[in-house]
Amino acid sequence: MAGGKLTPRQKMINLMYLVFIAMLAMNMSKEVLSAFGLMNEKFDAANVSAETTNNGMLAALEKKAGEDAHFAQAAADAKKISAISKSFYDYVGSVKSEITKSVEVDKTTGKMPYEAMDKADVIDQMFFKGEGYTAKGTEFVNNFNKYVADMKTVIGSNSKLSGVLSEITTKFKTTDVKNSEGVSIKYLDYHFKGFPSIASLAKLTSFQNDVKKAEADVFSILLGKAAVEASSMKNFTAMVVLDKSAYFQGEQVTGKVVLGKYDANTKPTSFQGPGKIVNGQAIISMTAGAVGEQSINGKFTFVQDGETIPLPFEGKYVVVPRPNSATISADKMNVVYRGVVNPISVSFAGIGEDKVTASGPGLSPAGGKGKYKMSPGAGTEAKITVTGKLPNGQIVSDSKVFRIKGIPGPMGTIRGEMGTVKGPKSSLEVSTVGAKLVDFDFEVGLSVVGFNLKVSGQPTVVVQGSKLNAACKAVLSRASKGDQVTISEIKTKLEGAGSYMLPRTAPVIYEIQ
Q1: pLDDT beyond 90 at 36
Q2: Rounded mean pLDDT of the chain?
Q3: What is the DSSP secondary structure assignment for residue 2, as one 8-state letter?
Q4: C-alpha to C-alpha distance for 448 and 489, rounded to whole angstroms
Q5: Cβ neighbours of residue 384 closer than 8 Å, sequence gap 6 or more
Q6: pLDDT at 490
């Protein structure tokens, strides 16, 4: 077209033709730029929609985790995936903001001037320096690699998510890329170098879309669309099914724990047994048989896919005689002691402890069902009356009389020793006179408040308290080795019992060495 001898007219025609082709090329370029802009818009819209969908699935997982412990780990993993995805998504968004910060948006349409975004200088200056990357370019690649590594950490060896992990690894791989001529080119060079800014913007938005898709894939698998309905436990209850409902002491208890489901929509075509169907449950109502083990049996009938399916059931229960006497026992022995708090256990055969009450002089609740305490007063006997309420409302009662005994007299002690104690005079002078109950089942506190001290051939010294006073020490100063010191008339109080004094306390002898 440009060769040979051409007339001026032909040259003009050819020149106009070239200008026309150039104009076509310019128009095509603008159309392509606009196409990238429209693509970016569609990705942005898809990302907004994906955000809503993904948040919904995450909320569903968290709700399921609150209902079923099997979903707890899935919900925890989903939260981690959400955090990783958001962090990377936001980082890519910050790069997009850098590219478009100098672009003026049309105030009327709210769109960027796609046809004017044909330069590559912004992203080239951001990512490239000579033949290598800038710090920003290296940061960009590192963030891609970190996203893949973090996703691998959370997904781990979960075989159900291996396909998602494989797709993430492929889409966000930052190794060198071979072009159409088989030449290896650096990752950023291949994807961004020299490209119009609108094309790079669309590609970054597509990366964000890939992040949202991966997040959605993970959530969908963890949630399991079919499992959402199938695993709901709202209509299930755990039931203990024993082989019978009463056992003798020492007998082996056998049975099973099962999950049962009932709802008003589960309607058998027929029911045979001692009861009727109410809201998906067979409500049993019958009169107990003779004393001993009895059976309950029957059958449900359902129709499924045109086929009649029988579902038989059988259970056992034990009938015991109606209770008419109470069991009352003292926890220590069949007597109660004056001056101490006596623990009493009360029960009524066949009646729940919350339906049993007891009364008597000095008797009061001790905390806990069937537990009482008794502090008897004067007299030699105490009567305890027990009343029980049967399931049908009938009141039954019984009573028992307990003997009241005083606390036996204690033994006097020196240095905690009873009987005849030997030691130096100096040890006796600083010793404490005490008292001890021998072979008594209650833990009680004893306090000595007075005693008499007598050394052979010398006058008796009366002491107030439990320690030797100056008069005692004066008498002891005249005592010789081998002399016996008798401590008698020991006055002992029961701690916590006011002024109550114990019977006579046995004396204790101290032989001076």
Answers
A1: no
A2: 81
A3: -
A4: 11
A5: 328, 344, 346, 358, 359, 360, 363, 374, 399, 400, 401, 402
A6: 92
